[in-house]
Amino acid sequence: MSVAILGAGAFGTALACALGHAQLWARDADHAADMTRTGQNARRLPGVDLPDTVAITGDLAEIDADTLLLAMPMQQMRGFLQEHAAWLAPRILVACSKGVDLDLLIGPVGVIEQALPGARGALLTGPSFAADIARGLPTALTLAARDDALGTDLQARLSTENLRLYRNTDVTGAELGGALKNVIAIAAGMVIGAGLGESARAALMARGYAEMQRLALALGAESETLAGLSGLGDLVLTCGSEKSRNFRYGMALGAQTGFDAATTVEGAATARAVTRLAREHDIDMPITRMVAAVIDGVLTPTEAKGALLARPLTLE
């Protein structure tokens, strides 16, 4: 059985490096040609050599694989699935995105199942930076699939010497862990960018994790999933490193400086989507709500801080 990665961003390229024998599809044909010529993805993951065994293409018709890793931004996934539904339907689809669809308010596997009823979908998520995976540094991820037989097969096929996958059937928990931690990472970045200190960041992470648990459990997730790689593990990574786009974006918001508009920040759309989702389910998520308000220009970071600190005292 063969594997292809659809999406030649940093993470898709890193997965191609880790797996070795795979096809890598880039949406931009010129980008694919550049990678083929140079042996590197200078646009997204500079300084990393692609293995000779990775076949790069800009033409979907050249993809010949039964298993596809969908390494594309969350908000673009539904359109891609709908556009190529007939071609995708017979294949195993592994989402590698983290977020909540702004219109449907569901995660990546939910989007696969909605766009392609009956499709065999799974999710690859967890604490990982593309550069670490590409360079062969030890990384552990969650492979979530409702069908445990499918999960077992994918776990064996996609694990490598340095990329260790842990299997899980709690797709909802894995989806929400990966999505919600990006929102909290933005908030953590705002704390540091505004100069509020490490103690404030630690408090925000803990209270943010409580928000993650509240929403995830209300939607049927298992608490153990949120305490694992796809929840707490990913939260720790993205709230503590400037390698995280979401954290850097939060720092820019907190410091009230500019940010590269071309950089995809999954947590920004997720904050808006989750604020709606929490309202629909009557779940209290004050940090998420404040992040969305700052992103939308409704509040300044200073006003958001004041609103959070002014909340009534309560039990932990």
Describe the protein's architecture and organization.
A hairpin with a 3-residue loop joins strand 3 and strand 4 (45-49). Helix 9 packs antiparallel against helix 11. The chain is 51% helix and 14% strand. The mean pLDDT is 96. It has helices at 10-19, 29-38, 74-83, 85-88, 108-115, 130-134, 148-158, 171-193, 198-218, 223-226, 229-239, 245-255, 266-280, 286-295, 301-309, and strands spanning 3-6, 22-25, 40-41, 45-49, 54-57, 67-70, 92-95, 120-125, 139-144, 163-168.
What order do the helices and strands come in, and which of them pair?
Elements lengths: L2 E4 L3 H10 L2 E4 L3 H10 L1 E2 L3 E5 L4 E4 L9 E4 L3 H10 L1 H4 L3 E4 L12 H8 L4 E6 L4 H5 L4 E6 L3 H11 L4 E6 L2 H23 L4 H21 L4 H4 L2 H11 L5 H11 L10 H15 L5 H10 L5 H9 L7
Parallel strand pairs: 1-2, 1-6, 2-5, 6-7, 7-8, 9-10
Antiparallel strand pairs: 3-4, 8-9
